[in-house]
Automatic annotation (TrEMBL):
Name the UniProt record assigns to this protein: Acyltransferase
Classification via CDD domains: LbH_MAT_like
Organism: Shewanella canadensis
GO CC terms of this entry: cytosol
Keywords from the named record: Acyltransferase, Transferase
Keyword Transferase listed: yes
Lineage: Bacteria, Pseudomonadati, Pseudomonadota, Gammaproteobacteria, Alteromonadales
Keyword Acyltransferase (UniProt): yes
Lineage: superkingdom: Bacteria
GO molecular function, one term: O-acyltransferase activity
Family listed: Belongs to the transferase hexapeptide repeat family.
Annotated InterPro entries: Hexapep, Hexapeptide_acetyltransf, Trimer_LpxA-like_sf
Amino acid sequence: MKKRFYCLPGVLVSFMMSLSPSFRFSNFILRMFNSEVEKNITIHSAVRFILPTRMKIGEGTTINAGSLIDSRCHVEIGKNCMIGRGSKLFSLGHDLDDDFFKSVGSKITLGDGVVVFPYVLIMPGVIIDDNAVILPGSVVTKSVPRNCVYGGVPAKFIRRRECNPSFSHNYNVYFGV
């Protein structure tokens, strides 16, 4: 039986970031251990990470309070994304057909300009393409095309977005809320 040993830096980074009230300090810690995280991101307080050394975050992205990012199988978040309060991204789960529920998972990808409203669950292997919107409380189990709005449990197509937004986030506050 193969055992998984998780890297110590990832565990330490997760612990230090969970105690930080300042998003500037959280950004500093995250970037110290992960070169694939851009400078101008906002991570609010009480955001939890599982192995933050295995993720990529584009500039202008905001991750709100109470969110959980499980990047054991890698998570890639594009530029200018917004992840709402209490949202959870799981890159690892279990095989329901295995007698011992072995761990299975795959990379989660969020394109540029993706908006994930509060309390959304995003499951392993999901790709959410550019400028897509996920409505509050949705469970995303399948990939979402560009410029589409999805919602529900499980998340289903609601409508196409008529606009093609091009914006940039820049939060100049000292403490996340």
